[in-house]
Amino acid sequence: MHGTPQLTPELLLRAYAEGLFPMAETRDDPTLYWVSPEKRGVIPLDGFHVSRRLARTVRSDRYAVSFDHAFVDVMQACGGTRAETWINAEILRLYTALHVAGYAHSVECRLEGELVGGLYGVSLGGAFFGESMFSIARDASKVALVHLVAQLIRSGFVLLDTQFQTAHLEQFGTLEIPRGVYLARLNEALGTRAYWLASAGSATAFSASVASGETGLTGFSGPMATVSPGAIALQVITQAS
Question: Are 235 and 48 in contact (CB under 8 A)?
Fold first, then answer.
């Protein structure tokens, strides 16, 4: 890693296209560093694993799930719920600018109106770079991840980059691949046309598109009110496997 002068959103996107991403040592350190792990964590979108217990939680729609409704709040929660974080003021500035430009996205989970979990990341071509997640209620970040994967599949993405392999992410089928293999997959993903279809939307809106026959999914019928957003997300993931 090495120090870098102040970045622009445009330079940040170019860095992602080269397999790099920035981090700070602490929330109070203004310096950013380029990171390019020798081994990269990725979640195969056709091999995403959901445990039975988590599937029950997702299907219950315990949490109200939305997309891009509270990007800054999610970023702040990702940094604020940890004793130490690499999300400093400069990271917040840069990724907020990417969000305004349509390149950075968030998934939010609410319980009785309160934001209790979520995640955010960057989309570029057919690649989505997961940055961070948080949870202050049981499984809230996991539910957000399930809905993210369903939306990525539906939107035509082919690469979900988790940056690193962790014990938490391993349960979902995360793989660790060498940098060279990752860069080849990234190059392929950047040449893929994918569109983030969930901007300023909700999981319920996705259910509406399913109920109206817009998604091409099978196995659901009847009025929208009977269609569970969580069940739809799980169906999308199952059909991609």
Answer: no
DSSP state string for 134-168: EESSTTHHHHHHHHHHHHHHHHT--EEEEES--HH
Residue 16 makes CB contacts below 8 A (sequence gap 6+) with 122, 124, 127, 129
CA distance 185 to 45: 13
Burial class (CB in 10 A: 0-12, 13-18, 19+), 84: exposed
Nearest to 47 by CA among 171, 141, 144, 166: 171
Answer whether 32's CB lies under 8 Å from 22's CB: yes
Bridge partner list, 107: 67, 119
pLDDT tens figures, 152-204: 999 999 999 999 988 889 999 999 999 999 999 999 999 999 988 766 667 77
Is this structure's pTM higher than 0.85?
yes
221: its two tokens: 């019928």
Residue 42 makes CB contacts below 8 A (sequence gap 6+) with 159, 160, 161, 162, 174, 175, 177, 182, 185
Q: Which amino acid is at 5?
A: P
Give the C-alpha separation, 135 to 126, whole Å.
27
Asked if residue 31 lies in contact with residue 62, where contact means CB atoms within 8 angstroms, the answer is no
Give the neighbor-by-neighbor strand order of the sheet with 32-35: 3-4, 32-35, 21-23
Q: How far is CA 128 from CA 5, 161, 162, 218, in A?
A: 25, 6, 9, 26
